[in-house]
User: Which sequence fits this backbone?
């Protein structure tokens, strides 16, 4: 049994290392500067405005149909059972479908048989926004029985607390001290080292803190989400935009519980916010070469780009 556990742990670490640390991307490019008016004619000015006006434009968020939204709703039984719990502020319930890589790569639209019946964004959820989102902005995603937390420019930590009541969970509960005391680094190189440490697993008391954990039914988890403030520019078909513009960047501690595992492979999650504060802004080490990668970095592609 111990050998099997060690093997599974090694697979989880390898999975995260292969998919890479999003915090270790090259320093962010500043917003492109437009030429001065006397350096271009009116047509050029119009063209440049069209190509750069999209810093707040996010082209990858797919829309779902009403029927798809209906299929994503938690069961009527669960909604009734937790109705009183859900009346309290900053609490919620949602289902996560298994990520079969149909929309993990935002630059590719898959129409093969496995993807014809998938629901856009159904594997990715943002606790900060209380909505389904993209792989880039997700606080948590579900793939092959694993809960994964690796959002863009975020330092997220998961811990399994056991079969304990979610209603009673506070910052003083067992297993919460590491999450509460954790101080996120604000320099990208140091933050990347923290990221890799958490990928490998950090032990404190009798708990282990990671970015990937198995999704177990009737199990309570806690989570720290540090969504760094900053910018991350991308280009798409001539449009330049900030991937995290408009995204609610906060430092959040929450608890959640997997209350149901369905036969279709989905899980239903009940959650509540415990504490929030302003998140730090990520800074970049100007003395480091932009292509320097920390020891243990494997891939140049991010999870969100479909590695």
Assistant:
């Amino acid at each position: 049994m111990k050998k099997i556990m060690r093997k599974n742990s090694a697979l989880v670490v390898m999975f995260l290392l292969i998919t890479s640390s999003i915090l270790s991307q090259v320093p962010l490019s500043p917003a492109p500067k437009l030429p001065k008016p006397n350096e271009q004619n009116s047509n050029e000015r119009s063209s440049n405005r069209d190509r750069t006006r999209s810093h707040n434009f996010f082209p990858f968020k797919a829309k779902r149909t009403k029927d798809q939204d209906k299929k994503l709703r938690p069961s009527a039984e669960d909604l009734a059972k937790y109705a009183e719990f859900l009346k309290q502020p900053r609490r919620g319930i949602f289902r996560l479908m298994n990520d079969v890589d149909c929309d993990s790569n935002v630059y590719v639209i898959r129409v093969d048989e496995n993807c014809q019946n998938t629901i856009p964004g159904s594997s990715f959820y943002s606790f900060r926004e209380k909505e389904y989102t993209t792989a880039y902005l997700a606080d948590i995603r579900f793939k092959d029985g694993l809960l994964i937390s690796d959002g863009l420019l975020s330092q997220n930590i998961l811990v399994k607390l056991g079969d304990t009541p979610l209603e009673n969970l506070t910052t003083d509960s067992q297993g919460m001290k590491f999450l509460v005391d954790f101080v996120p680094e604000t320099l990208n190189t140091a933050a990347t080292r923290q990221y890799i440490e958490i990928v490998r697993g950090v032990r404190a008391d009798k708990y282990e803190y990671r970015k990937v954990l198995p999704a177990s039914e009737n199990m309570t988890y806690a989570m720290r989400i540090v969504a760094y403030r900053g910018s991350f520019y991308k280009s798409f078909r001539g449009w330049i935009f900030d991937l995290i513009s408009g995204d609610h960047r906060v430092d959040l501690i929450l608890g959640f519980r997997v209350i149901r595992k369905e036969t279709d492979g989905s899980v239903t999650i009940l959650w509540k916010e415990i504490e929030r504060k302003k998140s730090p802004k990520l800074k970049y080490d100007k003395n480091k070469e932009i292509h320097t990668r920390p020891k243990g970095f494997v891939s140049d592609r991010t999870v969100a780009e479909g590695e």
In short: The chain has one domain: 2-305. Residues 2-305 form one domain.
